[in-house]
Amino acid sequence: MKKMKRYIPCLLLLLACLMAGSCKKEIDIDYPSTAPLPVIEGSVSNEGMEVSITYTRDVTDSVKTKGVGGALVVVTASDGTSETLAYDGVTGKYRSEAKGKPGLTYTLEVTLNGRHYKAVSTMHEGFEVWEEGFMWWTVLDNRMVIYELLMSHGQEQPNYYCYRMFRNGKMYRWQASDSRGRINSMIPVTVMCMSEKMAEENDEEDRESILYEGDEIEMQILSIDRTTFDYLKSLAASGRTTANPYRNFEGDECLGYFSAHSIRRIHRTFSYKDMKDYSDTPNSLMNITD
Amino acid sequence: MLLLAGLLGSMPSLAQEPVVMQDTLADVVVSSHRPADRIKEVQIGVEKVNIAELGRVPVLFGERDIIKGIQLLPGVKQESDVSSGFQVRGGTSAQNLILLDDATIYNAGHLMGLFSTFNDDVLQGASLYKGMIPAQLGGATSSVLDIDTKAGNQHGHHLSATIGLLSAKLSAQGPLVKDKLSYFVAGRRSYMDLFLKATEDYKDNMLNFYDLNARFDFRAGPKDYLTLSLFNGRDNLGLEDMMSMKWSNTSAVLRWHHDMTDRVYNTLALIASDYRSDVSIDVLKTDYAMQGYISHLAMKDELTWQPTAKHKLKMGLQTDLIALKSAEWDINLLHQKEKRKAWENAIWVNEEWQATSRMQLSAGLRLDAFTVLGGAPFYEIAANGDIAHTYNYKSGKFVKTYLLLEPRLSVNYKLSDAASLKAGYSRTSQNLHAIRNASMSMPFDRYTMSSNIVKPQTAHQLSLGYMQMVADGDYDFSVEGYYKTVDNVYDYRDGKAFYSEIEIERIILGGKGRAYGLEAMLHKNNGPLTGWVAYTLSWAENKIDGINQNRWYTASNDRRHDISVVGMYKLSRRWELSATWVYNTGQAMTVPGAKYEAGGDTFYYYPQRNGYRAPAYHHLDLGAIYTIQARRFTSQWSFGLYNVYNHYNPFAITISNDDQKPSGTKATQTALFGIVPSVSYTIKF
User: Is A166's CB within 8 Å of B286's CB?
Assistant: First the structure.
């Protein structure tokens, strides 16, 4: 057995060479060109109303497009109230201070260059956040930095939510999910951030994923409706399925979506010294009882 | 059936097909593989697979594999380097039916499809029907791969053992009662997990597969012959306690061949098969487990009557009770399942008729009745995928019956002893549908059956071919063209995956497909150098509402050009060399035409489905076999070199945004295998 053990690393190396002979390389693709399409992203929340209108850009264009003014943007609620959103030239967005109310259904109508776009969304109550934080956890012998949040929701039916984690004002991680199989009073949200090895090696290609000491983190928890959930799931899958997400707007062709939601924001500064260590207690983060 | 046989039995006597009694250790050469037989073969679009020949062809990791072998035939393509699925004439692997001694096998791959679940040591031969299927076979709209296992030797005991890079196999055969009862048992198991277990870091991981075959042949009397064929294949993959993937196929087939007269015989088969998959993930507070199964309990009876040398009539019936669990899952605290039952019956008649000295016909008719049985909820689904209404039927109640009449026709017109012209038409149907997120078969594919919502998939195919033999059969050349249409092709709605909803009808949409092409093949049959060159020119297109603005689009399995060159050279009594070179036009893929921002992230807009081609796929493989023939045993060393010129073929291409670069976007190609050497050793007693 001892002799055999001596040869094991060689055999494993041989198998690894054979099995993991994969190779990655960058290739050139001649992308087709298409006429720019409008992209509308609208929201009604407990914080106010906001709509941005941009256009698609070429695949090889590295400069983001700016917001487009000159559109008529109207939000109508199911209680009969209506708001016309004003264009803010500084942010390039249409805004209103009017706050959304849970239980109401909102209709967004946009008229731009003679074309009309319309979408509907229902606002639900927000989530209550009980506990959150960064922690260490071990996955296949790799120590990983995890962010976990524990939240609850009043309704017993499945809830749909979306988290968005921003790092220093830039999107870091996001996901739309539902609470299938969870007790609504105890819904954990887990965000896989990076491995300890990745942080130590600090390769340039990993810097989008690496969290640095002092990074400002904003975690947003959105309570969304089923239509928005379906749209965001199809949007998230679009890179893998190479298919456009569902059409969320009626009328002329455009991209984007409209969501009426309750939003909860959490701010914290990333610091290794604040992290709890659950490396040796797999699958028992934060002592949550399901 | 037996009554009918009795009536037919009073007709004058003529020669009939011999009962198969395979009793030599030597590799089998399927008789109709001979060029003269290929000229005479009435069925168009059929490939008789020569197991012995395939065994000499070099393959990845040196694991001889019937599925990898048939991918070298015209009109047949592989799904990917690591898939045991194959695509025939523009169809997907989900549209193939694989039969092992009449039992249906699903997801026929080991190690996620690196090679097939069939141990080549136990195989006698196989026929691949490329959509032009005789009436006695049904249940597939693309192809039927009909595999037969070997019978044990009736006169002496023999043992064979092989050890390769990834697995070892052992087979034994011989008589239990001389000239009466024989056995053939074989097993294969991977052994890399034994090394994993011996290490501290990886001992909790699981990575193994095995397959077991057993066959017993019993000559009960001069007119009765019984066969019992058993199979079990299983894969176990696991990463500690976090993830596991298991799948298995089990089958048992009892066949009774009875000669009623010397020109009427009947074959009765009792068939049980069971495919199971089990996937689980328990990581980061996500606890997910999913199981599924498909089981068949079937009886098939076929009567063959050859009243004259010019007529051969086959008629039969099959009844099959199918139980299918599309999924049963536990997602955290949620437990859901969807399982259904169906009863499928078929009757058929097929006549092979030598109409004139030059013309031979095979004409058949198959009537398939698929009955969806109650005992599970059925739905009415709204356009957005929501359940509009639920129907509950009592267990066993007939919910819906689909009746499908499937005519099959093949004509062979002999232009001379060395040339023939063939034509054919077939209508085929399929009531079991595999729904896949990936373009290749995986253990977490979900399956569903025709229901009140899901319609049977049906295909029409027309085919025309010409075959020419030259130089007394040293060479033969064939060319075949085909055109086919397929209705009710189901796929996931955009953005949906196998876990999205338990009610599978909420997450799938139906569409249609069409494919056409030309296949040419040149065989060299005799001399020290043998082999073939196969070329396929083909098109495959789909149309599914909601995709590509509801217009026809190129299917992802469309390959415009496909070339296989296979050469085998007998250098000496001991050395045999072989080489294969394959080339495919790159896979059709979808690339973006624009990008945009939403929710703080960047996404792509796709103007056309599959409008772009990945780089071409090609590799050259070499093999050498060194055989030592001793008095008491034969031993064989097999050496292989896969992808000799180390060309990295695209397995996946990912496109990602990179606004830090002037190019704005980065396209990355991932390839799986460079050059891969292999060696195996076999000893036979």
Answer: no
To test the contact with chain A by mutation, choose from B163, B190, B195, B503 the residue with the greatest count of A C-beta atoms within 10 A, namely B195
Per the CB < 8 A criterion, the answer to whether B323 and B337 are in contact is: no
> Which among A38, A37, A39, A44 is positioned nearest to A85, based on CA atoms?
A44
d(CA A70, CA A113): 8
Q: Select the residue from A4, A5, A7, A19 to test the B interface by mutation, using most B Cβ atoms within 10 A.
A: A19
List chain A domain ranges. 38-124+231-262, 128-226+264-287
Which residues of B fall within a CB distance of 8 Å from A5? Answer: 198
- Asked if the domains A38-124+231-262 and A128-226+264-287 are classified in one and the same CATH topology, the answer is yes
Q: Which residue reads 């075949």 in tokens? A: B480
Distance CA B534, CA A265 (A): 63
**Interface pTM (ipTM) of the complex?**
0.88
- Across the interface, which of B201, B594, B601 has its CB nearest the CB of A57? B594
**pLDDT value of residue B101:** 95
In 3-state terms, what secondary structure has residue B651? coil
Contacts of A174 in chain B (CB under 8 A): 599-601
d(CA A204, CA B448): 46
Q: B2-684 maps to which CATH number? A: 2.40.170.20
State what percent of residues in chain B have pLDDT above 90. Answer: 56
Query: Domain extents for chain B?
Result: 2-684
Evaluate whether B591 touches B655 at the Cβ level (below 8 Å): yes
For residue A176, the chain B residue with the least C-alpha distance is B599
CATH code for the structural domain at A128-226+264-287: 2.60.40
CA dist B353 and B347 (Å) reads 20
pLDDT per residue as tens digits for the range B151-170: 999 989 999 999 988 889 99
Measured between beta carbons, the chain A residues lying within 8 angstroms of B607 are 32, 34
Beta strands (DSSP E) in B452-584 are 457-470, 475-492, 508-524, 529-544, 553-554, 561-570, 575-584
3-state secondary structure of A113: coil
Average pLDDT, chain B: 87
pLDDT at A11 over 50: no
CATH number of the A38-124+231-262 domain: 2.60.40
Q: Where are the beta strands (DSSP E) in B571-616?
A: 575-584, 588-589, 594-598, 601-605, 612-613
Taking an 8 Å cut-off on Cβ atoms, the answer to whether A181 and B547 are in contact is no
Query: What is the sign of the dihedral through the CA atoms of B95, B100, B102 and B107?
Result: negative
Question: Chain A to chain B, count of Cβ pairs less than 8 Å apart?
Answer: 216
The answer to whether the Cβ–Cβ distance between B600 and A234 falls below 8 Å is: no
Return the structure tokens found at A47: 């914080």
Binary contact (A242, B606; C-beta < 8 A):
yes
- Cβ-based neighbour number of residue B494 at 10 Å: 19
Dist CA B332 CA B499 (whole Å): 13
If you average pLDDT over residues B180-201, what whole number do you get? Answer: 85
At B229-246, the pLDDT tens digits run: 999 999 988 877 778 889
Kindly determine whether residue A290 and residue B333, on different chains, have CB atoms separated by under 8 Å. Answer: yes
The phi and psi torsions of B641 (rounded to 5 degrees) equal: -135, 105
Contact between chains at B658 and A238 (C-beta distance less than 8 A): no
Q: Kindly state whether B179 is in contact with chain A, defined as any CB-CB distance less than 8 angstroms.
A: no
Q: Which residue of B has its CA nearest to A150?
A: B285
Contact B591 A29 (CB under 8 A): yes
B13 touches A: beta carbon within 8 Å: no
Contact list in A for residue B658 (CB cut-off 8 A) is 62
| Whole-number pLDDT of residue B1 | 41
Write the pLDDT tens digit of every residue in B558-597.
889 999 999 999 999 999 999 999 999 998 888 999 999 9
